[in-house]
C-alpha cells in the first residue's frame, strides 16, 4: 500500500503536469553517495552541525564545505563541468522530468500566480514568511516594526532591478525582513537573522554544482545557446520555460555566477521559517507549509527547477538545525521564544495554554485547514523524483532534534530524534539520500508526534508548565512493536488510526482517544489519571482499570462505548464518568451500553453522570456493563 506521502505526490504531479504522471517512472537506484561524497565519507568528515561554518565561497568541494557535502545526492544526476554550460547529465530520466515539470508549470500558471511569483521573488524572504503566522501576523508586523515595499507586481516588465526597501511613511525604526532589533519582538528578528547568518548562503553550492536555471535549459536537459539575444539583451536559449514577464530584467546576465542548484530563495524561505517556528511553535505546521508554498513560486516563476528547490530546502534544514544547536546561539534562541510567548499572550489576552487556540481561531486563515496543508507539503518533498530500492531506516542527523525543541518540549532529545526517524520520508529518492540524509526529514509530519513506537515510549506532560507541556495531540497513524505509557498532569490526545502492539498505560493526567483505534492493538491499563473518549473506542487486547477514571461520552443509538476484544478487569478505585452528547443525548429510560468485553470481572466503585435531571443505574453482566438512564 502506498504511503500518504506517495499518494499525495502522485496526485500533485498529475494535476501540476497536465494530468500525466508518466514522467516519474523509476530509474535504477544508484548508491546514495556521489564519488566526491564517498571520498569525503572515507575521510570521516565532521557532522554537519559541527562543520557548518565551512560554508563559505572559498570552499567549493565536499571535502572542504559541509553544505556541498550534504547536497552530494545531486552528483548522482548531474556531473559538474569546468564551466557553467559544460556539465553532463547522468540521470537523464530525472533531469528531463525536472525540466518538463518546469515547462508545464510555467505554461499552466495563471496571471495571479505569475504576479504572486514576482512579489515573492523581490520581497525580503523573512518578511514573506510572516504571513504564516495567521491571526498573529498583523500583531507580529506591528510589534517587530517589519515592513516591505513590495506588495504587488507591476503590469509589465520593470525597466530596471526592483529591490525591497523601507517604504516612505513607515513608522520610525521600521526594518525590512523579520523586523527591528529594538522593537518589542527584536529578539525574534535577531534569531531569524542569526539563522540566516554568514554561513547560510546558497552561493557556494551554486558555484560548486554549476547546474543551470531552467530557462537556460531545454526540455532535454542540455544547454543550447542559440547565439541570439532577446529584446532586453539577454542570451536566448532553446527553452520552453516561460519566465514571468515582470522578472525578465531581474535575471542575472552572468550564467557562471547564477547557478540554479540550490535555490537561494528556497534556502532563505526555509531558514526564516524554521527560526519563526522555533520562536512561535504554536504555528509550527503552518510555517512549514508556507515555506514549501513560497519555494514553489520559484518554479512557478520559471526561475528555478524542482531539484533546485529541493536542494535549497535540504541545506536550509541542516543549516537551521546547526545554528539552533550551536551553543553560541543558546541565549538568543531562548530569548526569542520567551519574548514571542510573552508578547503574543499579552497582546491577545491569552495564556500559554490558550495561545494555540487563538493562533488557529481565524477561519479565513489560508492555512486553517491542516489536511489541505499536508496535501500541499507532502508532494513537494520529492516532486518529480522516482523512488527505487528497499525501505531503509533513517539515522537522524546529529543535532536535528533541536528543530522540535519548542514544539515538543516535553520530550527528551532522544525522543525527538525518534519522532524525526519514524516520520521521515522513505529512502530511495536520489536527491534526499545524500550524506546525513537531511532531505528525508519531514518536519510537518514530525510536529504530529511519533510515526511508530520502535520500543516502549513513556511521555510526561506537566500541566503546570503550560503550553505544549500541558497539552498536545499526536495525529499520526502510529505503528510499531512498542507501546505507550502516559505520565504527568498534562493531556495527550491520540487521533490516528494506530496499530502499535505494545499496549497503552495511563498512570497520571489525561489520555484522550480521539479515534476508534487510537489505543493501538495491545492491552490497555489504567493505573491512575483519566482516559477520555468522546466517541466509541476499540481495545484489541485486555482491559485493566485500577484507581483511575474512564471518562466517556454517550449518545443516542450507539453500541458499546468501549469494546474490548479480551478480558476486562475493574479493581478498587475504578471510576466511570458518563457525559451526555450535546447534539444527540440519549433520553430518560434509555439503556446505554458502556463496556463490552470477552469477560468482565469487578465493578466500578463510582459511576457519575453529568446531568441534573438524570441518573445512571448500572447493570453488570458477565461480558459488560450497561446503564439505564432514569429521571432523578
Query: Any idea what the radius of gyration is?
Result: 27 Å
What is the assembly state of the chains in this entry? Answer: single chain
Structurally, the number of domains stands at 2
Rounded to the nearest angstrom, the distance between the terminal CA atoms is: 53 Å
Number of helices: 18
Pfam family, one: PAP2
Protein name: Phosphatase PAP2 family protein
Keywords: Signal
Domain Phosphatidic acid phosphatase type 2/haloperoxidase: 187-324
Describe this structure in words.
This protein has 632 residues and is an alpha/beta fold. The chain folds into two domains: 30-366, no CATH class; 449-631, no CATH class. Helix content is 30%, strand content 15%. It is built from 18 helices and 23 strands. Strands 5-7-9-11-14-17-20 form a seven-stranded parallel β-sheet, with no helix packed on it. A seven-stranded parallel β-sheet has the order 6-8-10-12-15-18-21, with no helix packed on it. The chain has a five-stranded mixed β-sheet with strand order 13-16-19-23-22, with no helix packed on it. A hairpin with a 2-residue loop joins strand 22 and strand 23 (624-631). Helix 9 (186-195) packs antiparallel against helix 11, helix 9 crosses helix 14 (330-348) and helix 12 (284-300) packs across helix 16. The longest helix is centred in the middle third of the chain and has 20 residues, at 306-325. The radius of gyration is 27 Å and the shape is elongated. The two termini are 53 Å apart. The model is unreliable at 4-41 and 219-223 (pLDDT under 50). It comes from Streptomyces roseirectus. Pfam families: PAP2, PATR. This is Phosphatase PAP2 family protein. Keywords: Signal. InterPro entries: Autotrns_rpt, PAP2/HPO, PAP2/HPO_sf, Pectin_lyase_fold/virulence, TAT_signal.
Amino acid at each position: 500500500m502506498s504511503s500518504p506521502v506517495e499518494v499525495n505526490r502522485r496526485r500533485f504531479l498529475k494535476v501540476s503536469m497536465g494530468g500525466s504522471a508518466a514522467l516519474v517512472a523509476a530509474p535504477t537506484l544508484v548508491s546514495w553517495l556521489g564519488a566526491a561524497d564517498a571520498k569525503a565519507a572515507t575521510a570521516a568528515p565532521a557532522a554537519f552541525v559541527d562543520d557548518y561554518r565551512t560554508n563559505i565561497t572559498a570552499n567549493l568541494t565536499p571535502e572542504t564545505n559541509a553544505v556541498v557535502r550534504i547536497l552530494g545526492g545531486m552528483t548522482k544526476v548531474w556531473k559538474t563541468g569546468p564551466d557553467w554550460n559544460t556539465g553532463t547529465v547522468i540521470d537523464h530520466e530525472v533531469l528531463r522530468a525536472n525540466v518538463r515539470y518546469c515547462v508545464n508549470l510555467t505554461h499552466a500558471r495563471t496571471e495571479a500566480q505569475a504576479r504572486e511569483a514576482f512579489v515573492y521573488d523581490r520581497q525580503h524572504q523573512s518578511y514573506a514568511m510572516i504571513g504564516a503566522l495567521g491571526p498573529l501576523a498583523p500583531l507580529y508586523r506591528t510589534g517587530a516594526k517589519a515592513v516591505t515595499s513590495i506588495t504587488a507586481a507591476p503590469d509589465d516588465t520593470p525597466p530596471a532591478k526592483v529591490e525591497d526597501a523601507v517604504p516612505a511613511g513607515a513608522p520610525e525604526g521600521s526594518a525590512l525582513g523579520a523586523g527591528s532589533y529594538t522593537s518589542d519582538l527584536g529578539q525574534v528578528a535577531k534569531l531569524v537573522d542569526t539563522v540566516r547568518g554568514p554561513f547560510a548562503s546558497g552561493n557556494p553550492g551554486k558555484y560548486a554544482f554549476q547546474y543551470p536555471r531552467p530557462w537556460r535549459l531545454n526540455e532535454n536537459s542540455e544547454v543550447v545557446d542559440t547565439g541570439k539575444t532577446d529584446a532586453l539583451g539577454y542570451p536566448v536559449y532553446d527553452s520552453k520555460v516561460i519566465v514571468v514577464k515582470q522578472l525578465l530584467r531581474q535575471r542575472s546576465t552572468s550564467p557562471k555566477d547564477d547557478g540554479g542548484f540550490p535555490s537561494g530563495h528556497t534556502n532563505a524561505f526555509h531558514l526564516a521559517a524554521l527560526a519563526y517556528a522555533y520562536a512561535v511553535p504554536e504555528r509550527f505546521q503552518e510555517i512549514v507549509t508556507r515555506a514549501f508554498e513560497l519555494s514553489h513560486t520559484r518554479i512557478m516563476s520559471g526561475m528555478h527547477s524542482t531539484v533546485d528547490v529541493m536542494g535549497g530546502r535540504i541545506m536550509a534544514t541542516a543549516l537551521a538545525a546547526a545554528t539552533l544547536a550551536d551553543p553560541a546561539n543558546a541565549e538568543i534562541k531562548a530569548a526569542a521564544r520567551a519574548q514571542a510567548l510573552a508578547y503574543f499572550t499579552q497582546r491577545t489576552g491569552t495564556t500559554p495554554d490558550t495561545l494555540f487556540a487563538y493562533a488557529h481561531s481565524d477561519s479565513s486563515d489560508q492555512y486553517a485547514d491542516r489536511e489541505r496543508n499536508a496535501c500541499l507539503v507532502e508532494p513537494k518533498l520529492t516532486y518529480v523524483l522516482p523512488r527505487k530500492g528497499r525501505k531503509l531506516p533513517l539515522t537522524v542527523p546529529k543535532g536535528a532534534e533541536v528543530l522540535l525543541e519548542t514544539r515538543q518540549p516535553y520530550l527528551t532529545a532522544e525522543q525527538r530524534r525518534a519522532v524525526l526517524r519514524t516520520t521521515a520520508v522513505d529512502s530511495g529518492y536520489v536527491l534526499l539520500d545524500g550524506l546525513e540524509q537531511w532531505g528525508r526529514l519531514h518536519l510537518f509530519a514530525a510536529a504530529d508526534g511519533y510515526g511508530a513506537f520502535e520500543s516502549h515510549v513513556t511521555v510526561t506532560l506537566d500541566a503546570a508548565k503550560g503550553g505544549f507541556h500541558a497539552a498536545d495531540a499526536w495525529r499520526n497513524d502510529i505503528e510499531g512493536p512498542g507501546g505507550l505509557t502516559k505520565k504527568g498532569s498534562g493531556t495527550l490526545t491520540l487521533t490516528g488510526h494506530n496499530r502499535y502492539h505494545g499496549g497503552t498505560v495511563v498512570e497520571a493526567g489525561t489520555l484522550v482517544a480521539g479515534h476508534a483505534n487510537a489505543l493501538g492493538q495491545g492491552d490497555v491499563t489504567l493505573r491512575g489519571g483519566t482516559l477520555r473518549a468522546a466517541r466509541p473506542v476499540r481495545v484489541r487486547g485486555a482491559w485493566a482499570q485500577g484507581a483511575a477514571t474512564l471518562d466517556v461520552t454517550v449518545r443516542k443509538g450507539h453500541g458499546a462505548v468501549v469494546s474490548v476484544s479480551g478480558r476486562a478487569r475493574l479493581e478498587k478505585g475504578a471510576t466511570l464518568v458518563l457525559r451526555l452528547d450535546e447534539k444527540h443525548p440519549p433520553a430518560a429510560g434509555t439503556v446505554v451500553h458502556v463496556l463490552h468485553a470477552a469477560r468482565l470481572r469487578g465493578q466500578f466503585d463510582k459511576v457519575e453522570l453529568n446531568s441534573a435531571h438524570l441518573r445512571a443505574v448500572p447493570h453488570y453482566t458477565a461480558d459488560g456493563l450497561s446503564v439505564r438512564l432514569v429521571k432523578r
